[in-house]
Amino acid sequence: MDDKAIVIGGGVGPMAGVALHALIIENTLTDGKDQGHFDVQHFSRSADIPDRTAFLTGSDARNPAEGMARTFRCAWAALSACGKQGVGAVPCNTFHAPAIFDPFLRILEREGIRIPVLHLLDETMRFIDEAYPGLRRIGVLSTSGTRKTGIYRDLLAANGRELVELPEERQADLQDAIYNPEWGAKAVCPVSARSRELMAELTGLLAACGAEAVILGCTELPLGLPGKSLNGILLINPVLALARALVREADPCKLKAL
Amino acid sequence: MDDKAIVIGGGVGPMAGVALHALIIENTLTDGKDQGHFDVQHFSRSADIPDRTAFLTGSDARNPAEGMARTFRCAWAALSACGKQGVGAVPCNTFHAPAIFDPFLRILEREGIRIPVLHLLDETMRFIDEAYPGLRRIGVLSTSGTRKTGIYRDLLAANGRELVELPEERQADLQDAIYNPEWGAKAVCPVSARSRELMAELTGLLAACGAEAVILGCTELPLGLPGKSLNGILLINPVLALARALVREADPCKLKAL
Fold this sequence. Notes:
258 residues, alpha/beta, Rossmann fold, three-stranded parallel sheet, 11 helices, globular
């Protein structure tokens, strides 16, 4: 058992962590037996991690970095108890805004928590390079927090690609599809028809604006749009990119072909 | 945060742990926000836990109790690191055979790992009593290991109910639907059509033999038969019973109505 354990810093939202966990299993090559699967340690400590968008837009001063660092402290204790090295990830796009992700990494370093953490958005860019190198104009659906940071725009530009985003006046609808307390994707599992229809409409709108593919840049979105495409529009799921990256880092021999 | 953390002793098989995790989330009453969900710590250490049926049928001498106890040692370290009490469960029917479950509990006690562990089959009986008290003749599909122990027969009899099981000559087919290394439910996710069709046929056979409902008594079975019923036959999912029991023990105020 020289392979690494995979640590999921979950709970953001909780069902996105479950989706990542399932994709790790689905992308692992085994001999068909339970025993060929990775050691996955999945911590879903939602109550300790304030909303990421609320922090980025200034309506909550508490940085979610701190609660997630406490989650990784638990993971570090568990890894130490079973004598394993680990590789970790956080399945939340908005968490990767530098105002959150950078202090998070600094806390881990300061506390001696030696779990390397993959970067969800960097891995998504790598996935696009490998699987769809010809794409030039790429749509992104994301929370208002992620949008505000411009992180997808910068990463795509650095990769020679162009971002297509929603008209400003439709962003509130997307935020509602994710956050509405009655019918949003964070509130209802499985995702409600109303939320799914809105996600689908906004995906179509990005394609109509010239996007050749659409990145589902909030981990609740693939819960509502689980397919690889929608009405002929290619969907790129960052959680799938992350699952495959975690398998690659834990033991590259066990990564299934795409 | 006085509620308890929920510990999943997963990996047996790994996708059954994911199914339990998802059902915990789906059965938790929240205000629609991530932060209302439980602290779930899910350890999937498949490689360290030998096959349960192989142990019970004598083809592997290693008791899976020991690896699962090491899993709970990791959980205990993680809970200690975040100062939480926990309540745990193992989503594998076969693991609850007394020859495995009893030594498992003894190791936890000896090592001072103070995480109470719910019993999957006891919780399934409680679920039937609460949700379907009128049932008298109940079919059970299970691994050959679980079947050999007679544990479902004894529990149903103690509850004034009668077990309907497969004709002996069809048990190998059910074992194959779960374990076949090419197309069985442990080998292929999502579950293959061949495995699903066999599960459905055997469910129908139990109904034809007089079962008023069928317990999917191996945690791979609900992955292939996810509905509440099949061709009018009521399906009872022990993993759902367990998810609801964990929520009840962690904080009864947060248990959704059925």
